[in-house]
């Protein structure tokens, strides 16, 4: 990265407009994050998380990392929070306070988060020290710059991450499939003739052995072949 | 000072476009639906062809009482229409309608990511509305909205990524500068996937299961009245404009056309966008609603494989050309 390491940087005492904005947005983000973990209204917590994640995207923008900022919005605000809200609505999303939304682990959680934050701040401060981004020059976090940097210098970590994500994907599929068949088998034992949830069309014909008592002992792989 | 004036002028123009074009689409929908289905209702107001029907609708919405249900989460309920509408305003800023510097609100370096990211935020408005209404139909609508978004976001992104690969840039004007006419057949599958997925994200028929009136009244918007309801409708029409504009820019060559290259590019953009908007309305009138499981199946088993195949094809052709 070609961060402009200017020798005589302006110093901290005469902040520019961008720097002031950065600090203010940072404070707002911090506040939103605090509310996210302390509010007793579950859905409000998810919505405050939107504010916090959006605030981080604005910080990226102020640091000229435009590409990262939009990806942050796309992935975190647009997908992960929607997934969170979806999960909340599917399970339990009461309007108003949930008195049991408190965790007994909150002091441990505070300790862990402070330690993590301290580590990150230390790493970032130690890595960059007095490096200053030249805001007036060409954007250093543009898509082109990010892409070249990523695929010239950091291809191996990038590919390793892809493999990790792929593994997680396969794992998720395996878990959900196994769960479904277990349930079908359980239902099959309890109620020999009924099909489950309308999904088991052909259940009775393709898996006649499922009604037997010995089904739970059959290995998972074998069951998978049958379906 | 000139810079400030320039920015202010651009913002005012974008805002004007944002207020006017969705209403034009709404008016067109009234008339096209009336003709296609032989509806006589909206043909009287104002005399000729019922031109004042939209005005009458606007007045009606403004007159209605703004009701917040007693059990609702007040603030979120009231905030939701703004969250649904504002993203589309932001997206319109980045869509270029002509080749010159003055024909786009603001050139965004990572344009595709910007528009798709911000459009995704709009769905939060529907989710907030669905949850905060304290109504089981609204909650079901919100759930269906979320499920639909999760399913269709992926094919939309993949189709857009294919164009970005072909052009070698993610900037919207950059893509149009690189456009050649033969991209049209080359990217046609991606274009269809993008358009269909976009329709599903807007919850337009035939993908309007989240607001299916015969099952869950009006989904997430059941409890809304008056102007807030009108804002949701406006968000839908703004969404049509944005989707058609984006499809035009990404897949149909935007300002490129067989003739009139100098100075008249914006006419092509508007023409193509208008035709696509007509198609959106046409689909609403002619197609039955997809069932919820059919919706999910279409996304996961048809659109995503098609989008992946398009990306593979794009990659192969790109390598072959170079």
From TrEMBL, chain B:
Its EC number is 7.1.1.-. Keywords: Cell membrane, Membrane, NAD, Quinone, Translocase, Transmembrane, Transmembrane helix, Ubiquinone. NDH-1 shuttles electrons from NADH, via FMN and iron-sulfur (Fe-S) centers, to quinones in the respiratory chain. The immediate electron acceptor for the enzyme in this species is believed to be ubiquinone. Couples the redox reaction to proton translocation (for every two electrons transferred, four hydrogen ions are translocated across the cytoplasmic membrane), and thus conserves the redox energy in a proton gradient. This subunit may bind ubiquinone. GO terms for cellular component: plasma membrane. It comes from the Bacteria. The gene is nuoH. It catalyses: a quinone + NADH + 5 H(+)(in) = a quinol + NAD(+) + 4 H(+)(out). It is a multi-pass membrane protein. One of its GO terms (biological process) is aerobic respiration. Belongs to the complex I subunit 1 family. It is found in: Cell membrane; Membrane. It holds the Pfam family NADHdh. This is NADH-quinone oxidoreductase subunit H. InterPro entries: NADH_UbQ_OxRdtase_su1/FPO. NDH-1 is composed of 14 different subunits. Subunits NuoA, H, J, K, L, M, N constitute the membrane sector of the complex. Its main location: membrane. PANTHER family: NADH DEHYDROGENASE SUBUNIT 1 (PTHR11432), NADH-UBIQUINONE OXIDOREDUCTASE CHAIN 1 (PTHR11432:SF3). GO terms for molecular function: NADH dehydrogenase activity; oxidoreductase activity, acting on NAD(P)H, quinone or similar compound as acceptor; quinone binding. HAMAP family: NDH1_NuoH. The chain crosses the membrane at residues 7-26, 79-98, 110-133, 154-176, 182-200, 229-253, 265-286, 298-321.
């Amino acid at each position: 990265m070609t961060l402009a390491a200017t020798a005589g940087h302006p110093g901290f005492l005469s902040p520019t407009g961008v720097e002031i904005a950065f600090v203010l947005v940072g404070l707002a983000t911090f506040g939103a994050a605090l509310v996210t973990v302390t509010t007793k209204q579950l859905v409000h917590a998810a919505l405050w998380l939107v504010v916090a994640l959006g605030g981080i995207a604005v910080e990226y923008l102020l640091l000229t990392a435009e590409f990262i900022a939009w990806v942050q919005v796309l992935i975190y605000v647009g997908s992960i929070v929607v997934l969170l809200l979806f999960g909340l609505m599917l399970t339990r999303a009461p309007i108003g306070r949930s008195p049991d939304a408190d965790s007994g682990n909150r002091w441990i959680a505070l300790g862990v988060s402070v330690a993590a934050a301290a580590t990150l701040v230390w790493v970032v401060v130690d890595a960059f020290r007095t490096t200053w981004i030249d805001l007036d020059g060409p954007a250093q976090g543009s898509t082109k710059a990010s892409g070249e940097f990523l695929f010239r210098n950091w291809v191996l970590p990038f590919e390793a991450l892809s493999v990790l994500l792929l593994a997680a994907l396969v794992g998720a599929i395996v878990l959900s499939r196994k769960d479904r068949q277990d349930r079908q088998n359980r239902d099959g034992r309890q109620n020999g003739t009924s099909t489950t949830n309308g999904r088991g069309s052909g259940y009775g014909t393709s898996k006649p052995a499922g009604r037997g008592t010995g089904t739970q002992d059959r290995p998972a792989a074998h069951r998978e072949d049958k379906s | 000072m000139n810079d400030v004036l320039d920015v202010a002028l651009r913002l005012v123009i974008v805002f004007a476009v944002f207020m006017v074009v969705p209403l034009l689409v709404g008016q067109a929908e009234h008339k096209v639906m009336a003709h296609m289905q032989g509806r006589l209702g909206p043909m009287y107001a104002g005399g000729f062809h019922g031109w004042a029907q939209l005005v009458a609708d606007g007045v009606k919405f403004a007159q209605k009482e703004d009701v917040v249900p007693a059990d609702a989460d007040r603030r979120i309920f009231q905030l939701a229409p703004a969250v649904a509408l504002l993203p589309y305003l932001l997206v319109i800023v980045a869509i270029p309608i002509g080749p010159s510097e003055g024909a786009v609100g603001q050139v965004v370096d990572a344009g595709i990511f910007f528009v798709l990211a911000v459009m995704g935020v709009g769905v939060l408005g529907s989710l907030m509305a669905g949850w905060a209404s304290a109504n089981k139909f609204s909650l079901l609508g919100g759930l269906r909205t979320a499920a639909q978004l999760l399913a269709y976001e992926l094919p939309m992104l993949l189709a857009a990524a294919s164009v970005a690969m072909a052009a070698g840039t993610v900037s919207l004007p950059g893509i149009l500068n690189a456009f050649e006419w033969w991209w049209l057949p080359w990217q046609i599958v991606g274009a269809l996937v993008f358009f269909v997925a976009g329709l599903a994200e807007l919850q337009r028929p035939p993908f309007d299961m989240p607001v299916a009136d015969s099952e869950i009244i009006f989904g997430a918007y059941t409890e809304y009245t008056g102007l807030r309801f009108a804002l949701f409708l406006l968000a839908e029409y703004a969404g049509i404009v944005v989707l058609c504009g984006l499809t035009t820019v990404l897949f149909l060559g935007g300002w490129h056309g067989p003739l009139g290259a100098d100075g008249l590019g914006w006419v092509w953009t508007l023409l193509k966008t208008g035709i696509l908007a007509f198609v959106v309305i046409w689909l609403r009138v002619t197609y039955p609603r997809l069932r919820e499981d059919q919706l999910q199946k279409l996304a996961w088993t048809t659109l995503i494989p098609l989008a992946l195949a398009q990306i593979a094809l794009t990659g192969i052709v790109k390598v072959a050309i170079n």
